[in-house]
Amino acid sequence: MGKLITRASSINRALDQVGDKWCLLILQEVFWGINSFNDMLAATGVSKGVLADRLKWLQAVDCLHRKPDENGGKRMRYHLTRKSVELYDSALMAVAWERRFFNTRELDEITLRHQTCGRSFQPELRCRACGDEVRVNAVSYQPGPGATGDERDKKVRRRSSLPVQNVPSRRSLYKNLINIVGDRWTANVIALSFHGLTRFDEFHRELPVATNILSDRLKFLVEEGVFSQVAYQQRPLRYEYRLTDKGEALFPWFLTLLQWGDRWCSPDGRGRPMHLTHVSCGQALVAQVQCSACGGVLTAHEVDFELGPGAAIPSAGGAG
Ligand SMILES: [Zn+2]
Ligand SMILES: [Zn+2]
């Protein structure tokens, strides 16, 4: 009981560990230096019970490390680990997506500054081999050594149905993205659409999901502007779900998460489930997040967020 078999995927493995809405929100706060229980409680608006539960979970999967305040106080602080600090790539791509598709004063006022070159920048996802920006249609997929079914425990898939929009998070730099990808089925459908799937039956064949839930998620993704709905058959009426520009632009977030899953979430050392090739240059794809100003590869400790006049957030808190 409670076991599901799904196609092995580093995206799914990563989502099992950190893909819950609250886990994504908590990690976002820790990236911006909010790392005590009470500060996180205030910043995210989550209930105490849920926060305690997710903090425990994130420690269990080695994404947070708890230790006493360095200044000798009684407070415990939650720190990023070597594993979770590498999620910074996807956090940067999340911010880039959010800024492109949502205009809020808070987002407009943010300046990302690269300490290494001193300039403000946009994060860009580029192929390490050829330097081109990686686009969804320029990637091909081949089965890797770990391409078998994954047995997954249903208990892992605990998902909150609370919309993140209602959360009074002070600095939800990418709450719209979290609201879309922080649901397991929604995230799965988008990931499959990057492989060219467009029809209800195709999604249903790949996912162990009830048809009413799948319908509901597809409707949600159309409402959110991730898919456009196009009739491909009149009798009976059938629709295709095609990625919009906004949907395609989620690809860098998924790709950084996939690479993180390859690196950190392989259960038994079988190797990665998929090999990715950058079609533009023909090389095995290693995508890296780079500074648009100097081309340097970005790391968490070299990026400052400046939130308008006088409200700078320091770079990510130390790992370990
Ligand atoms: Zn390339
Ligand atoms: Zn730079």
Description:
It is a single chain. With 320 residues, the protein is of the alpha+beta class. The chain has a single domain, classed as Orthogonal Bundle (Arc Repressor Mutant, subunit A). It is 37% helix and 21% strand. It contains 13 helices and 14 strands. The chain has helices at 10-18, 21-31, 37-44, 48-60, 82-85, 88-101, 105-109, 175-181, 184-193, 200-206, 211-223, 245-248, 251-264; strands spanning 3-7, 64-68, 76-80, 110-114, 123-127, 139-143, 149-153, 227-233, 238-243, 274-278, 283-284, 287-291, 303-307, 312-313. The strands form 6 sheets. It has a 3-stranded antiparallel β-sheet. The radius of gyration is 20 Å and the shape is globular. The protein starts with a strand and ends in a 7-residue tail after the last strand. Residues 154-168 have low confidence and may be disordered. The site of one zinc ion has 9 residues, from loops.
Q: What topology, given as strand order, has the largest sheet?
A: 4-13-14
Task: Provide the list of bound ligands, each named once.
Answer: zinc ion
Strand content: 15-25%
Largest sheet: 3 strands, antiparallel
Which regions have little confidence, pLDDT < 50, spanning 5+ residues? 154-168
Number of strands: 14
Q: Specify Rg, calculated over alpha carbons.
A: 20 Å
**Distance between the first and last residues' Cα:** 37 Å
**CATH class assignment:** Mainly Alpha
Average of per-residue pLDDT values: 86
Q: List the total number of helices.
A: 13
SSE string, helix = H, strand = E?
EHHHHEEHHHEEEEHHHHEEHHEEEEE
Helix content: 25-40%
CATH homology-level superfamily:
Winged helix-like DNA-binding domain superfamily/Winged helix DNA-binding domain
Report the CATH topology name.
Arc Repressor Mutant, subunit A
Number of structurally distinct domains: 1
